[in-house]
Design goal:
The chain contains 12 helices and 16 strands. The chain is of the alpha/beta class and 337 residues long. The protein folds into 2 domains: 199 residues, 3-Layer(aba) Sandwich (Rossmann fold); 110 residues, Rossmann fold (3-Layer(aba) Sandwich), CATH 3.40.50.
Length: 337
């Protein structure tokens, strides 16, 4: 038997979500979120076979037991501070695994990637089926996440998302399917690596990583600038944009028609709020390709989101505004070059 001190030391932080839900009906893969029961981190680990658990030295921490649709930036900020402190206090720790609901996992991962500068891996993992379901995917995903967190080659790659035996960069991953197990995908360039058997294989490095000064965590913890997302559509008159402005939005992210276009009425409304110093970022509804800073957008003072999707763009814009960045600096943060 292996000496415990020689085993990879990994902390597992549970925040709730499908991976930590249990239903009395093993066929229930839909209603468990409302009628199921919560599990904590020890329950998740106990679902792994003993031979798997014996390969790691694991610390278990229950941070929250919430559906991820209930999480917000103040809670992600608290989570980031906890992760930062754990890494600083435990230099022998190989990495951290965060179990997280899949609904907002791509947002939580991107937030953490922006504010954490850890060289050791921080791995987010979830599940599409509750722990009680036939062929539940949580245990396999958790095992894969532990392998990645303990993998020396995962260092320096930022926050990672592990699902369905793939490793994704936080800035490129998105949830693409409602119930399918292969829901997490990186549409433009694919995953960073894969897990095959008990081995982690990386094929490339993350592209275009961004960082926000960690001082933002103190500001976000006490509230954040309002930033809304406006979904563009043919014939849109801009009423939603005006309503967001009236509600106090300091920033608006447009989920535009591809490749970054809005209806005339929406354009008029966007120009009106820009004249009132509201920051506007143009993203698109598509899952692939970038929103380019075309001449029209530059002339109107609108920032192009690059390859960030609307919900990710909202997080970055919120953090930029919380740090009182100028529009020029915000444009640099979104730049894909």
């Amino acid at each position: 038997m292996s000496d415990a001190a020689s085993l990879p030391f990994v902390t597992v932080i549970s925040t709730g979500g499908t991976i930590a839900r249990y239903s009395d009906n093993p066929c229930d893969t839909v209603d468990y979120a409302e009628i199921g029961q919560d599990l904590d981190s020890s329950d998740l680990l106990s679902a792994l076979p003993a031979v798997v658990r014996a390969r790691f030295r694991v610390r278990e921490i229950t941070f929250s037991q919430k559906d991820s649709s209930h999480l917000d930036m103040s809670q992600w900020a608290a989570l980031a501070c906890r992760i930062r402190d754990l890494l600083a206090e435990n230099p022998d720790m190989a990495g951290i695994v965060v179990t997280h609901g899949t609904t907002t996992l791509e947002e939580g991962a991107f937030f953490l990637d922006l504010v954490l500068r850890a060289d050791r891996p921080v791995v987010l993992v979830g599940a599409q089926r509750p722990a009680s379901a036939i062929s539940a995917d949580g245990p396999a995903n958790l095992h894969a996440a532990l392998l990645v967190a303990a993998c020396p080659q995962a260092r320096g790659k930022g926050v990672l998302v592990v699902a369905d035996n793939e490793v994704h960069a936080a800035a490129s991953v998105t949830k693409a399917a409602t119930y399918r197990l292969d829901t997490f995908r990186s549409p433009d360039f694919g995953p960073l690596g894969v897990i095959e058997g008990d081995e982690v294989h990386f094929a490339r490095q993350p592209l275009g990583r961004r960082h926000i000064d960690s001082a933002v965590l103190g500001r976000i913890a006490h509230g954040w600038p309002r930033v809304d997302i406006c979904y563009s559509y043919s014939g849109g008159d801009g009423a939603a944009i005006a309503a967001f402005h009236a509600a106090g939005a300091r920033g608006i992210v447009v989920a535009s028609m591809l490749p970054g276009m809005c209806a005339p009425g929406e354009n008029d409304a966007l120009d009106a709020v820009r004249a009132q110093d509201v920051a506007v970022v143009m993203s698109s509804q598509g899952s692939c390709g970038a929103t380019i800073p075309r001449q029209d957008l530059r002339q109107r003072g609108i920032v192009a989101a690059g390859r960030l999707r609307p919900r990710q763009a909202r997080i970055l814009l919120t953090l930029c505004l919380a740090m009182d960045m100028t529009m020029e600096r915000i444009a640099e943060m979104f730049d894909i070059s």
